[in-house]
From TrEMBL, chains A, B:
Record domain Acyl-CoA oxidase C-terminal: where: 511-648
UniProt xrefs under InterPro entries: ACOX_C_alpha1, Acyl-CoA_Oxase/DH_mid-dom, Acyl-CoA_Oxase/DH_mid-dom_sf, Acyl-CoA_oxidase, Acyl-CoA_oxidase_C, AcylCo_DH-like_C, AcylCoA_DH/ox_N, AcylCoA_DH/ox_N_sf
The name this protein goes by in its record: Acyl-CoA dehydrogenase family protein
Segments forming domain Acyl-CoA oxidase/dehydrogenase middle: 146-254
Classification via Pfam families: ACOX, ACOX_C_alpha1, Acyl-CoA_dh_M, Acyl-CoA_dh_N
Cofactor(s) in the UniProt record: FAD
Keywords: FAD, Flavoprotein, Oxidoreductase
Organism phylogeny: Bacteria, Bacillati, Actinomycetota, Actinomycetes, Kitasatosporales
Domain Acyl-CoA dehydrogenase/oxidase N-terminal: 32-142
Family: Belongs to the acyl-CoA oxidase family.
Domain Acyl-CoA oxidase C-alpha1: 290-449
């Protein structure tokens, strides 16, 4: 707020963005896949009108039809093995999903439910017999299914699900039973209307012993009728995503054959002997869950692209909408020439670019792990952590961007014909489905605090507290991955302990050092507080509760550091030229607004003087002024099909 | 984030909230009015289901019918003179409106359009002939009308409206004409279906001279048919508020008699001579606008109460929903016992209370000004400023609270049956209608920067820049109202220049001093930057653009100071007892979270050491733990009819 009026930048030459080249850079290796999806989006653009105009039933049917038709183009099956009609590339499948998020989000989520959740569970948790039986028809959309994990009583803590599957050795069947209403499956996409099969997660009981949660393939509809013993209720209208038929499912002694158990990680012999290569039941459960990480990578990437749609509309609107005269001349000033409007939109634009490149990294990691290119235990853990963190930051970002952009478009932004209504309502659930964002950040923090110890995957929050308090603080710090690169906290600052007070504000090394320092310092502090709490004889639960906001902050700091590293790496690797200059401005803007928004923390911890803090705010304003003339090109480079902007009152 | 685990508070006795007494305090002098509305809300509770289930047309008709039925109970006409069938109390009318915001927000906005905007314009801008002609039927809802100010091209800058009303002295009529499509009236509530009359704002031209924007009563429907020369288009579905029929209106040479001009502030003689007691056309326009301030007071109060509904649901849910075990015992922990969950909800609870008491102040000021109790020029200006500021902070608060509460209720919060969908979609427009929040804060800042100079009402942003740069910075500071109470900046700190480093963190004087210091310092800084920019020969527009975020921050700091003062005054006036203790905790929590969220600024400006900043965060956590056991009672005290919570999956 103490920003002074900067002199016009001297010696600065405004870059000219090469839009097609930048689109190529953003699309990357999956450009062809993305273009296929862009074509499909344009072909089926009328679904955006249908979403507004059709009744619930018709809209659901329309979305189903459209998903099946898209499936026929190969767009939705890219992640499945080629032998079953898939595309054989996990990375391509994520890229396709991300691009689909430019369009109607019910279509996106229906695709996610059918091919990601349902198909993914069959593929990852099942074995050949399941693949042979289901994948061919599932990939074409002929066989619709649902993913029945969440229950009314348990969404985040799925290890505590209430549905039970008891093995009956006499009949060689599993008997599935919903206990009370808290154990009914709830919010299940595809359940209310379209699913024939459900992958049901239930507590497996064999011979009176519980073996934890396992997945079973259960027919829920036969020839369109609800199967005997199954009860289904429609979840009805939702805030958004009304093209997806969510519902509740109860099981009343439903019997399925022994082969219905998805048996990649555990099986029950015909005689009723439980067998698994993974002995520890917690680890077994988290290993199963870990194979489903693709869902989180998908949602994070989808959210980032939904944010792009909102930003593209708001930026184009701000380039043409005039309001109030700026000077005495006749014409009113366009919104984007106002300093405040730049402050509202351009840092969000920069962060969207940053998250795009961070998503590239996590998509690549996913592809490498699931294609067996880099499939060790450590890589899987890092992938799970990064997927959780990128999903949390990406989806919160989308919520924030869509809200800010709607407000920046005033009353016109409120009309249903101008996409914001649908964007806002449909994307709202992203922050809490596929893992509640706060719970996901706790997962990230757990990995950091335990240094991805081999046991880490199996720990709940209390185990984590006990584990951390069993270590010396130094050990915790040593175990962090960042630390392995950087010998001591002081070494985070490449020019020595005072260097950060003098470094150039536009030096990426400075930005990285600041975010690394913050992460390490917060991590050590959280570990110290956990230990101190336990030393004080408090219960692990009470200790965790009191340190919880600190733990979440550690995770947030960690993920922001990863995002910045992804952006910096990308810019550095570019050949010299105007696009590099433009992305460099955005990268600086992202880094400095990130530091600025947490500048209180940096001041509290001696890494930022009051003067320097004010200088950062001035620099941010200056960067906004430099990015402003590039803004239209920067949103055009996302390659959003014009039909998807669907905002006749805003972008013409 | 450096918060250490606090020892259990010693000597602290947890208060027991007397819920009925607290409800009485909150309802205040308008308890009977509020209870009438509560009864009506309960009687018509089924409209919440209708909103979800009915089609667009039926829902609009349902809302119309309901509004007319509510009008018959006297609820909606309280602000009109008794001689016309009204209640004769502006304050009561606002209290009724606020309470109505617990229910369906389409009903609320329909009431606002009919009785606040349309009725308010007839009452405030018209004279006896208009009152006699329209008020009796308007108050019963028999005569429906609309308020046609906003145009597609102009929402914020309404002085630049494009519709023209030309006086034809021969026929003694005004001829209304929409120029191009940018001048069509847009987003006008009641226009698409129900309005018979419109109060139309248009540029008045008499004998070739333009006299600025004036208001005219224009029939837009006759016997249910659109009037000749009028064209109306439906705005169609909106993000929310679909029970209100918004539309667009074009006028093609529509003739209305001379008496159609609402002539309280200006008239045209039959011969075509323009007459007004207010010579300056800008001042005339802003005087007219000023009489409509009630709309902003209403929306602000409504938004605060909509936020209460969301908080009540989320708090009740967090009291019963269990997730993850906190300790090794059998039961999972309720959400509200998690430190993070407390941090998410309880500061919002405290801010809601703070805004409630701030709303009490602005409602009282409105009542006094419009009842002639305190109707001087200065009081009117302060009212306009306070109404603008409270509306901006109240509506942003509602958007934030509803989003946070939805996320805190997970998937169930996404189902339409559980109120969040409607709350979120319906309230979204609050931040930009009845004045865009950023534009409103600029209005507040303009008042501060010009010390409510007599010319201030007439200035646009450029005049303001020129005015401020014509003054010495000291003069600007001298002119601020806060300064009149407190001789010099240093005197803001009651214990001397260093006192704030040692003052008790729970001392209200400390909280007030911090917020006062921030406001004065920011104000002086903004004035200095404006002057420096103009001295540097930049154009006023460029200077304003560069200082705009600072100007907005000044306004925000000013309004937060007013909100805190309202809360502190309220607590201090209470008799000793548990309710005073409980409200004192909330007041401290509001004050410290307000300081905490801007602690970077306080550190940058030498008013907060790093150590003290961390201590404030610790204190906030401690206050959250103290408020936690009171949370259920504190939301119950709002007296929201249980039917309005309508969240069967969340609150049972």
């Amino acid at each position: 707020m103490s920003t002074e009026i900067a002199p016009p930048p001297s010696g600065y030459v405004q870059p000219v963005v090469d839009v097609p080249a930048l689109t190529g850079l953003l699309d990357g290796e999956y450009a062809a896949v993305r273009d296929l999806v862009r074509t499909n989006l344009t072909t089926y653009a009328s679904v955006l009108d249908d979403a507004e105009e059709l009744g619930l039933d018709e809209y659901r049917e329309r979305v189903r039809t459209l998903v099946v038709e898209m499936a026929a183009t190969g767009q939705t099956g890219m992640g499945f093995p080629e032998e079953y009609g898939g595309g054989g590339s996990v990375g391509a499948s994520i890229a396709a999903f991300e691009t689909l998020a430019f369009g109607d989000l019910s279509v996106l989520v229906k695709v996610g439910v059918q091919f990601g959740l349902f198909g993914g569970a069959i593929l990852q948790l099942g074995t050949r017999r399941h693949h042979d039986a289901y994948l061919p028809d599932l990939i074409t959309g002929k066989l619709m299914g649902c993913f029945a994990m969440t229950e009314t009583g348990h969404g985040s803590n799925v290890q505590a699900l209430g549905t039970v599957a008891t093995y009956d050795a006499d009949s060689r069947e599993f008997v599935l039973t919903t206990g009370d209403d808290q154990a009914r499956k709830d919010y299940i996409g595809n359940a209310a209307r379209h699913a024939e099969l459900a992958v049901v997660f239930a507590q497996l009981e064999v011979g009176g012993t519980s073996h934890g949660v396992h997945a079973f393939v259960v027919p829920v509809r036969i020839d369109g009728e609800v199967a005997p013993g199954v009860r289904i209720e429609d979840d009805g209208r939702k805030m958004g995503l009304n093209g997806v038929d969510n519902g509740r499912i109860w099981f009343d002694g439903v019997r399925v054959p022994r082969e219905a158990l998805l048996d990649k990680f555990a099986d029950v012999t015909p005689e009723g002997v439980y067998e698994s290569a993974i002995e520890n039941p917690d680890r077994r459960f988290f290993t199963m869950l870990g194979t489903l990480v693709q869902g989180r990578v998908s949602v994070g990437g989808g959210a980032i692209n939904a944010a792009k749609v909102a930003l593209a509309i708001a930026t184009k609107y701000a380039e043409r909408r005039r309001q109030f005269k700026a000077d005495s001349d006749a014409q009113e000033q366009v919104l984007l020439d106002y300093g405040l409007h730049q402050r509202r939109l351009l840092p969000l634009l920069a962060r969207t670019y940053a998250l795009h490149f961070a998503q590239d990294v996590v998509r690549t990691q996913l592809h490498e792990v699931f294609s067996g290119i880099k499939d060790d235990e450590q890589s899987r853990r890092e992938l799970e952590s990064r997927a959780a963190g990128t999903k949390a930051l990406g989806t919160w970002h989308a919520t924030r961007v869509i809200q800010e952009c709607r407000e920046a478009c005033g009353g016109a932004g409120y009309l249903a014909v101008n996409r914001f209504a649908a964007l806002k309502a449909d994307s709202d659930i992203f922050t809490t489905f596929e893992g509640d964002n706060h719970v996901l950040l706790q997962l990230v923090a757990k990995g950091l605090l335990t240094g991805y110890a081999s046991e880490f995957g199996d720990m709940d929050q209390l185990d984590m507290v006990r584990f951390v308090t069993g270590l010396a603080v130094e050990t915790v710090i040593e175990k962090t991955s960042a630390h392995k690169l950087l010998e001591r906290v002081r070494d985070l600052l490449p020019g020595g302990d005072e260097w950060d007070q003098e470094a150039g504000l536009l030096d990426s090394e400075y930005h990285l050092a600041m975010l690394r320092f913050r992460e390490e310092h917060m991590l050590a502090g959280a570990a110290r507080r956990l230990k101190r709490g336990m030393d004080g004889k408090a219960s692990p639960g009470a200790v965790f509760s009191q340190v919880q906001d600190h733990v979440i902050a550690v995770a947030d700091a960690h993920v922001e550091r990863l995002v910045l590293e992804a952006f910096v790496d990308k810019v550095r690797a570019l050949p010299d030229g105007d696009n590099k200059v433009a992305l460099g401005l955005l990268c600086d803007l992202f880094a400095l607004t990130t530091i600025e928004s947490d500048r209180a923390w940096f001041m509290e911890h001696g890494r930022l003087s009051a003067q320097r803090s004010k200088a950062i705010s001035r620099e941010v304003n200056d960067l906004c002024r430099k990015v402003r003339p590039l803004a239209a090109d920067l949103v055009d480079a996302w390659g959003i099909p014009p039909e998807m902007l669907r905002a006749p009152d805003l972008v013409g």
